Amino acid sequence: MNIFRLAGDMSHLLSVILLLLKIRTTKSCAGISLKTQELYVVVFLARYLNLFTRYYSFYNTVMKLVFIATSVCIVWYMRFHKVVKQTYNKDLDTFRHYVVIPPCFLLALLVHHEFTVMEVLWTFSLYLEAVAILPQLILLQRTRNIDNLTGNYIFLLGAYRALYLLNWIYRFFMEKAQARWISWISGLVQTALYADFFYYYIKSWKNNEKLKLPA
Amino acid sequence: YQELPVKDEL
């Protein structure tokens, strides 16, 4: 474990806790993309299968359970909670997220470290996570005023993978870990998708004005 | 085939 990875995990954990808090306290999921949340459930289920087959550490196991539980809980709130589901921007959240699942799976069948079920699903989860934020970013451009909690949620979510990139650089040089192109390239693509959001987020934070993405 | 160390990551 290194500081970049710990910071990345904490940023990721904080993002999902912030989102859950927003939904629970405001009883609203306005501005949140259900499609992105559902893609994240698929990402976590596909990636954390080794939860049952390989024990790394208490921390590793607990965090995997937390990420699966929170992502499922958020989807439940947005789909079934009688008050919250009314606030879902159904008409704006129109990205057909099921379209990205087959290409990611096909790519995982073609490009992977090893052709086993666990490895292909793990690779699939990396490719899917790289594009999972797309519905949310598109919804943001359509949302009139983005509330602070939502902006902070997306910032932390983007920061987590950016910190993971630093973690991979650290491990490559310090632990002489071998190159893991699949993780690196997926992580780069994922972080790059946040580039313009980061720009507008930091600008709004500097000028102390409302976060606004150009349509 | 030794497990990639990356698997200890989230």
UniProtKB/TrEMBL annotation, chain A:
Q: Which UniProt keywords apply?
A: Endoplasmic reticulum, ER-Golgi transport, Membrane, Protein transport, Receptor, Transmembrane, Transmembrane helix, Transport
Q: Which InterPro entries match?
A: ER_ret_rcpt (IPR000133)
Q: What is the membrane topology listed in the Swiss-Prot or TrEMBL record?
A: Multi-pass membrane protein
Which BP terms in the Gene Ontology apply to this protein? protein retention in ER lumen; protein transport; vesicle-mediated transport
Mind telling me which residue stretches traverse the membrane in this protein?
55-77, 98-115, 121-140, 152-170, 182-202
The terms describing its cellular component in GO are: endoplasmic reticulum membrane
Where located?
A: Endoplasmic reticulum membrane
Look up the domain of life of the source: Eukaryota
**What are the recorded GO MF terms, alphabetically?**
ER retention sequence binding
- The principal location of this protein is endoplasmic reticulum
Q: Which PANTHER family does the UniProt record give?
A: ER LUMEN PROTEIN RETAINING RECEPTOR
Q: Which family does it belong to?
A: Belongs to the ERD2 family.
Q: What is this protein called?
A: ER lumen protein-retaining receptor
Q: Which species is listed as the source? A: Handroanthus impetiginosus
